[in-house]
Amino acid sequence: MKIERFEDIEAWKLARKLTQNIYYLTKKTVFAKDYGLKRQIQNAAGSSMHNIAEGFDAESNAEFIRFLRYAKRSCTEVQSELYVAIDEHYISSNEFKVAYELANRTRAAIRGFINYLKQFEAAKG
User: Which of 118, 102, 95 is nearest to 24 (CA)?
Assistant: First the structure.
């Protein structure tokens, strides 16, 4: 499938689901009151999808890969912040597992896309 817009990128679709999941979790009454963590985890989740979109308009694959790496790191940040949320009893262990795995899947998709772009560049020679 030819990628014509950032919405066609599977990693972006997963990052969007991750962002939706995090916003859902942070609307829970007790979580919503922790403004610092709420803002931080929402920003990290959003950053995963926004960096993919922003990188799509990069002038080169190397620059796109740089943005994808930012997006991948944002997924890891979400995972770390999920530990704070569960430790503070803002989310259940099941909610933690679902969100953590979604961040993991998103990160893996981004990593796969980075590898694809690297191989494409190497084949161009």
Answer: 95
Q: 48: domain CATH number?
A: 1.20.1440.60
Task: Please tell me the pTM assigned to this model.
Answer: 0.94
For 22-66, give the DSSP string: HHHHHTSHHHHT-HHHHHHHHHHHHHHHHHHHHHHT-SSHHHHHH
Span 97-121, pLDDT tens digits: 999 999 999 999 999 999 999 997 7
How many Å apart are CA 38 and CA 22, to the nearest integer? 9
Alpha-carbon torsion angle 51, 62, 56, 78, nearest 10: -20
Assigned token pair, 101: 């795995």
DSSP 5: S
Residue 108 lies in a domain: yes
* One-letter amino acid of 50: H
**Structural domain containing residue 76:** 7-124
